[in-house]
Automatic annotation (TrEMBL):
The keyword Coiled coil applies. Residues 2-43 form a coiled coil. Keywords: Coiled coil. This is Uncharacterized protein.
Amino acid sequence: MKKQQDDEQQLLQQRMREYKQRHRELVQLRKEFKQQREEFKQRLVPAMQHARQVKRENEVLRLLLHLKQQEVEQQMEEKNERLLRRHRGPSFQAVKDFIGGILAPKEITSYKRLEKVQMGLRHTKD
């Protein structure tokens, strides 16, 4: 009976030692895990900030590229329009209406008079 109690006591003490050992290992693992997590966060946060900054910069560059493309397209359209006007020439009626309404007090009825009005010789005779 006494031997059985001693055996049970020894078994209980052994289990307590094993439990304490496992507990210490778990505490140590928890500390290591927390430390690794903090190290990871310290590396991750700057990387995430850099990624966000790069994303913003890319968005700005994309917008600038879009604006530049629009500007180039507009310039090309204006250039094409100028070339078309140069080759086609303005319609006499449109020029007559424009200049006649703004510069000339009397109606312009000939190219010769139109040219004089354009040159500022409005008051000379034909």
